[in-house]
Design a protein that fits this description.
Its EC number is 1.5.1.5, 3.5.4.9. Catalyzes the oxidation of 5,10-methylenetetrahydrofolate to 5,10-methenyltetrahydrofolate and then the hydrolysis of 5,10-methenyltetrahydrofolate to 10-formyltetrahydrofolate. Keywords: Amino-acid biosynthesis, Histidine biosynthesis, Hydrolase, Methionine biosynthesis, Multifunctional enzyme, NADP, One-carbon metabolism, Oxidoreductase, Purine biosynthesis. This protein is of the alpha/beta class. It folds into two domains: 30-115, Rossmann fold (3-Layer(aba) Sandwich); 140-264, Rossmann fold. Helices cover 40% and strands 16% of the residues. It starts with a strand and ends with a helix. The model has no long low-confidence stretch (mean pLDDT 96). 5,10-Methenyltetrahydrofolate (GUE) binds next to helix 2, strand 4 and helix 9.
């Protein structure tokens, strides 16, 4: 018996098709949403990610604003681009591609982003709103995880979800989404300080593996039929992506998100959704 696939590429394609229609409505009203990216340095991986985001934009009718700075750029130069994008009415939302070069105060840069233009959903104000239950752009990867489960009919309400990892972009905020009344999951968060990781994993109806440790989740630690989402991205010596989930888990789990092809494409779709929703909010205010 083999797990059913939580196909992130298929779900992302369906979401992008829905967003294309919403963008068309906005454009009829004279509003073209625009996604900005700031890329600092010449990391090939980051360049590829950013290029992918702009390809996505073109596909759904969102305008692209690409800003690039050399790896030698200093704090002031980076902050100047952030101020420029905050002020630019053509920019509905934007991201500062991470990581930034060593020596840059990342938190200071991210705090300067206008929370209304925070396409990543990682601004302190928006994370605070998430804690408070107020409307805000949601962090893209966590929202991608929840959306991928929902679209495949995986029961979240009442489920015991074990989240592996406590990183800021994923692990920290996934429990905040899953424990909302609209999701109603019960969440255990485990991390490198957890005494018996396997004992927790075996209790899980849903495992979200976001630790960045290759093949951390082993088949013998997964309850038969559980849903397992592989969010970890490590690379082997050939540069190939290796996830947090051991391939043998496919024989035990009921549902499995592949990596690549799972949560990654969903992250990109959620970024586009944040931009479209920001444009819709702005249009509703302007139009009354
Ligand atoms: N401000 C900021 N926001 C981010 O969201 C952000 C970032 N910085 N820095 C880097 C990480 C990484 N990340 C990925 C998104 C999608 C895929 C993705 O779509 N991956 C494909 C495979 C790769 C491909 O097809 O090109 C997949 O999983 O199937 C991967 C990685 C976003 N990040």
């Amino acid at each position: 018996m083999s797990a059913q696939i939580l196909d992130g590429r298929a779900a992302a394609a369906a979401i992008k098709s829905d967003l294309t229609a919403r963008v068309a409505v906005l454009r009829e009203r004279g509003v073209t949403p625009g996604l900005g990216t700031l890329l600092v340095g010449d990391d090939v991986g980051s360049q590829k990610y950013v290029a992918g985001k702009h390809r996505d934009c073109a596909a759904v009718g969102i305008a692209s604003l690409q800003r690039e700075l050399p790896a030698t750029a200093g704090q002031a130069e980076i902050e100047a681009v952030v101020h420029e994008l905050n002020a630019d009415p053509a920019c509905t939302g934007y991201i500062v591609q991470l990581p930034l070069p060593r020596g840059i105060d990342v938190n200071r840069v991210l705090e300067l982003i206008d929370p209304a233009k925070d396409a990543d959903g990682l601004h302190p104000t928006n994370l605070g709103r998430l804690v408070l239950g107020q409307p805000a752009p949601l962090p893209c990867t966590p929202n991608g995880v929840v959306t991928l489960l929902r679209r495949n009919g995986v029961e979240i309400a009442g489920a015991h979800v074990v989240v592996v990892g406590r990183g800021v972009t994923i692990g920290r905020s996934i429990p905040l989404l899953l424990t909302r009344r609209s999701e109603n999951a019960t969440v255990t968060q485990v991390h490198t300080g957890t005494r018996d990781l396997a004992a927790h994993l075996r209790q899980a109806d849903i495992i979200v593996a976001a630790a960045g440790v290759p093949h951390l989740v082993k088949p013998e630690d997964v309850k038969p039929g559980a849903a397992v989402l592989d969010v970890g991205v490590s690379r082997d010596e050939h540069g190939k992506v290796v996830g947090d989930v051991h391939p043998g888990v496919a024989e035990v789990a009921g549902w499995l998100s592949p990596n690549p092809g799972g949560v990654g494409p969903m992250t990109r779709a959620m970024l586009l959704q944040n931009v479209v929703e920001a444009a819709e909010r702005a249009t509703a205010v302007v139009g009354g």
